[in-house]
Design brief:
This protein has 422 residues and is mainly α. The protein contains 18 helices and 5 strands. The strands form 2 sheets. It has a 3-stranded antiparallel β-sheet.
């Protein structure tokens, strides 16, 4: 393992990419400590996070890496961008023009990315206005003027826009997964304070060493299970018939189609969390009784929230899998190259077979994602340890770590170095 890490820094191109990603992570954490001007932090923390762990703002703060609690320029994190991406993905299915753009290769994706940026700014402005209005209601902005409110809204929106740009830079000049790496950085930045809080509870006698050991065992089992499912795949055998072209023989080999159990990775969990957080925040900032009731009904930990969260994870798992794996396209490519699945006729029968296998395999992955995502709401009462290391957090961290490791693996193998997976 140590030799593998040394090999990363032997390849100049890979070394530059890794160092660039680390530098961007440092920039993000530095920016997360730049406060928005004109805010009384003491009043903000007392009112906004008075409900403790599980409140909608505390859950939103998990994705902001503590920036919302301190109300810095990155307080809204990257959630408006994620919400805009979800909306564009859904619209791509129902609007023919967007669907046509998605099939035009790099240029089409570039245009959709541009629409996503515009959508991000619009959603960021709406969310910034909502949060600013809400914190002004209980006096967190002393003697506010129109100029003060405008500065706060612009600062929050600019922070989200900068994070969006930072994620794109990591995609282009780093090792990919820019937005995921930003969320990953946010989550791990909460760990020191969480560990210290757990230590203080232990010193005070609120929890015992058995609670902590039980929590560690559960955490290890969850990580092991996530890795097992993330790397699991159903291999569908494919046989290619022989073709004679001139004096050469082509084909005649056997291979397989790797169909991953969790084709969508951590995307469904991120999407589901963002979709549920956005209406919760908007409902909480509206000055109406019915809005307060809606906010309390869909706050993290409530029964309605858990039901909607589970259903959305299932939905987004199937939705994202359908976007990334097209049985019709796979069957068509196989037929063009003289390939077939043993015992299955080419054409429509192959499409139906692949679709049936995909539905069954995806169901296992979707159910697993749902169970792990709901675990943090049970781990606290079971272990007595309140820490950010919950299902959503560990899914994102483990998924991003695996994807990043695979990216580094491919670069090392290109240079004839052994990777992590020997």
């Amino acid at each position: 393992m140590l030799q593998t890490f040394k090999n990363i820094f032997k390849v100049k191109e890979l070394r530059k990419k890794v160092l660039f990603v680390l530098a961007m992570m440092v920039v993000y954490r530095l920016g997360a400590h730049i406060p928005v001007p004109g805010i009384d932090i003491s009043i903000l923390q007392e009112r906004l996070f008075a409900g403790g762990i599980g409140g909608v703002f505390d859950f939103l703060d998990l994705f902001a890496g503590g920036a919302l609690r301190n109300f810095t320029i990155f307080a809204m994190s990257i959630t408006p961008y994620i919400t805009a991406s979800i909306i564009l993905n859904l619209l791509t299915v129902v609007i023919p023009k967007l669907e046509e753009l998605s099939k035009q290769g790099a240029e089409g994706r570039k245009k959709i990315a541009q629409y996503t940026r515009y959508g991000t700014i619009v959603l960021a402005v709406i969310q910034a206005i909502g949060i600013t209005t809400y914190i002004n209601r209980f006096g967190a902005i002393p003697n506010p003027t129109l100029f003060d409110l405008t500065v706060i809204i612009v600062s929050l929106t600019a922070g989200t826009a900068f994070l969006m740009w930072l994620g794109e830079q990591i995609n282009e000049k780093g090792i990919g997964n820019g937005i995921s790496i930003i969320i990953f950085t946010s989550i791990i930045s909460r760990f020191p304070s969480d560990f210290y809080g757990t230590y203080e509870l232990f010193r005070a006698g609120s929890i015992s060493i058995l609670n902590i050991l039980f929590f560690i065992v559960l955490a290890v089992l969850i990580v092991a299970g996530i890795i097992f499912v993330q790397e699991g795949e159903r291999r569908i055998p494919v046989q290619y018939s022989k073709r004679i072209v001139g004096r050469k023989v082509y084909g005649g080999r056997s291979t397989h189609i790797p169909m991953k159990v969790n084709q969508a990775g951590v995307i469904p969990v991120i999407f589901a969390s963002s979709v549920l957080l956005f209406p919760g925040v908007i409902a909480q900032v509206l000055p109406y009784d019915w809005a307060s009731n809606v906010a309390s009904m869909i706050q993290p930990g409530s029964t309605l929230y858990l039901i909607l969260y589970a259903l959305m994870i299932l939905f987004f798992t199937y939705f994202y899998t359908a976007i990334t794996f097209n049985p019709e396209e796979v069957a068509e490519n196989m037929q063009k190259n003289g390939g077939f699945i043993p015992g299955i006729r080419p054409g429509k029968a192959t499409i139906n077979y692949l679709d049936k296998i995909l539905v069954r395999v995806t169901l296992a992955g979707a159910v697993f994602l749902t169970i792990v995502a709901l675990l943090p709401f049970a781990m606290g009462p079971l272990t007595g340890v309140n820490i950010s290391f919950g299902g959503t957090s560990v899914l994102i961290m483990t998924g991003v770590a695996l994807q990043t490791m695979q990216q580094i693996e491919s670069h090392l193998l290109m240079r004839h170095y052994e990777g992590f997976m020997k």
